[in-house]
UniProtKB/TrEMBL annotation, chains A, B, C:
One of its GO terms (biological process) is thiamine biosynthetic process. This is hydroxyethylthiazole kinase. Keywords: ATP-binding, Kinase, Magnesium, Metal-binding, Nucleotide-binding, Thiamine biosynthesis, Transferase. GO terms for molecular function: ATP binding; hydroxyethylthiazole kinase activity; magnesium ion binding. Pathway: Cofactor biosynthesis; thiamine diphosphate biosynthesis; 4-methyl-5-(2-phosphoethyl)-thiazole from 5-(2-hydroxyethyl)-4-methylthiazole: step 1/1.
């Protein structure tokens, strides 16, 4: 599929989000809740941060998708994650996992493995996290920062995707998205995204939004289109308002809110590797 | 009372907040803490986010009012809410309830009913939440977003106000505030407020501030004046700096901080329905 | 040591942070996580918000320093704090304590005393907090706001520093930093910092960053240089972009990110009292 076609598809997927205003349940972490909620609102979705074991199973019934993030992990939240995921699976709703910092501690890795075994629709992380999640990491991760080039993680991502039947997305200078067989690449983004906390968590939650609003797309495409839209908004923000991470965050949300058809269709840089 | 008089009263109430710098205890939710705290600081108050059952009753003794928000509910926080409210009532301090997402799950509705039965000074929500809180909802709420026009909620708000002896404020294009008998309307605001997470939670906490700083006002007026000031700041921000939700949030806080007497007196749009 | 020399040292310490990109573990509070993480990223460090008793001891092994903040205290977090501090001490890593609101409630004071007894490398608070922490407070604190001039707190700070073998930093119009014997003063800063929530928490976490990246410095100097850099960024932001607290927050992060050698060397206002 040519890049130009992908650009039109990214726009169509975004237009569907804006038209449908999907309600997405997020079990986010304490750091990322504010930006994740604002990202979803700017994109045209309705975020609901609901994490408690007392209500997650009931809430997923009225939501279009679920996003699970292990950033600030603790046992009560893990119990909420388990029940929400079980509810999503039973209801046939897509769910997305962000394995923040997996590999950094034994507890985090154990919980992550348990959640991965529940079969996420999409897993998104940086290269270190995907390497750790795939059991392919040869070095300890450094928390949430990526210390491995994303290209190194492609074989790990394919392994992981095949093993758990998920789409795996690896964020980096070039994002890689694979279902274990096909590989899409997204060349949008800006380095300032890494200077603002919770941008990774936010794009993961946004993948859940795109899945909810675009059930006719394959998760491989839905994830790639989300990353392209998100990265393109960063580029547009930086180009129109050069500055540091503080003002960038504001202009980035403005761009997510405002991006129009021509910009998206022409600016989204999605390509597919030959099989 | 004419709108012009209300404008002067909104200014007087705000001036009192800025002069007295009231300390207000907030049991906020994880998503809204940042914006709620910054809203209170910009308005001239001192926010204290204190939620733990171990200290809430003692803390309310030194605070001027209490704000309770059920956004990211869990059992330990509910216990903190119960004790803080009991402490506020015993000490004769006003307290405000934001029934975020009530009606979305059984747990949330049950807790909300329990807290409402404790007699909040003011309850503020969107139309869906007030309908659900009043037991008048005929459809499930969609989390924190409003899916019913606020005017539909007036009779529910009056019922709820009468039943629990509270003032009930319904946010919408036109805010409605009632004590069960009198009805005030506030026509300030901007649609961008709904594209920034936690603005509803923040205005609820700000009502607690206005109550603490203006004990001579009736809660009906204090709530309406808060909504007028908050909405007017949004209008001023949008007019001076048109843009998207990211930059709006920053300019909105600037406006809360800077609004002067003439702007408030002339811009606050408060009116009262004939009895 | 002359102020000019201190200016060069502040720059050298900041340059070391940017070069080494230290990973710092933060047990922050719910309100401050977003700004604290963004402050650390803007300064050139890697923040990791990890609080759970299940993993804090393991995580500190890969981190360069630990920051502990008691803002939104509850028993499970206190257990995480205890274990993280024990791990930091055993591993010889520096750790910093922010005694937010100590003195406001019995619970908060008790926990704070316990943590102080564990011997923080640096304690940073406002004058009220340091007075309370030193057991010298004659009035109840008002939560997180300072109601005593920082100069009043100098003798309390010296007492506290001597008693617990820590460096004590008192934020105010002029920051005071003491090890019980020497006293450094920092004259950087802007009043708008007090109109943005979590700036105090953020500078405390940033002290941990400077300690991690500058092991050759004494903690007295590392703390003072952090406060000078942080306050100078506020000045630069206000001078270039006068406004209110909303836009200030964004420009402040931009300034932390961008401050260059000449600005820091000439603008850092650090002086030492004669012994």
């Amino acid at each position: 599929m040519a890049a130009a076609t992908h650009g039109a598809n990214v726009w169509a997927a975004l237009a569907s989000v804006r038209a449908k205003n999907p309600l997405v349940q997020c079990i986010a972490n304490y750091v990322s809740m504010d930006l994740a909620a604002n990202t979803l609102l700017a994109a045209g979705a309705s975020p609901a941060m609901v994490h408690s074991a007392e209500e997650v199973e009931e809430f997923i019934q009225i939501a279009g998708a679920l996003s699970v993030n292990i950033g600030t992990l603790s046992p009560p939240w893990v119990e909420g994650m388990r029940r929400a995921i079980a509810g999503a699976k039973e209801a046939g709703k897509p769910w997305v996992l962000d394995p923040v910092g997996v590999g950094a501690t034994t507890y985090r890795t154990k919980i992550c493995q348990e959640l991965i075994a529940m079969g996420p629709t999409v897993i998104r992380g940086n290269a270190s996290e995907i390497l750790a999640a795939a059991g392919a990491a040869t070095e300890a991760t450094r928390g949430v920062d990526s210390s491995a080039a994303s290209t190194d993680a492609l074989s790990a991502a394919k392994q992981l995707a095949t093993a758990c039947g998920s789409v795996v997305a690896v964020s980096g200078a070039i994002d890689l998205i694979t279902d274990g067989r096909r590989v899409l690449r997204v060349a949008n983004g800006d380095p300032l995204l890494q200077k603002v906390t919770a941008t990774g968590c936010s794009v993961t939650a946004l993948i859940a939004v795109f899945l909810a609003a675009n059930p006719e797309l394959q998760p491989l495409e839905a994830a790639a289109y989300t990353l392209a839209y998100f990265g393109l908004a960063a580029q547009v923000a930086v180009e129109a308002h050069p500055g540091g991470p503080g003002t960038f965050r504001a202009h980035f949300l403005d761009a997510l809110y405002a991006l129009g058809e021509e910009t998206v269709t022409q600016g989204a840089l999605v390509s597919e590797d030959p099989l």
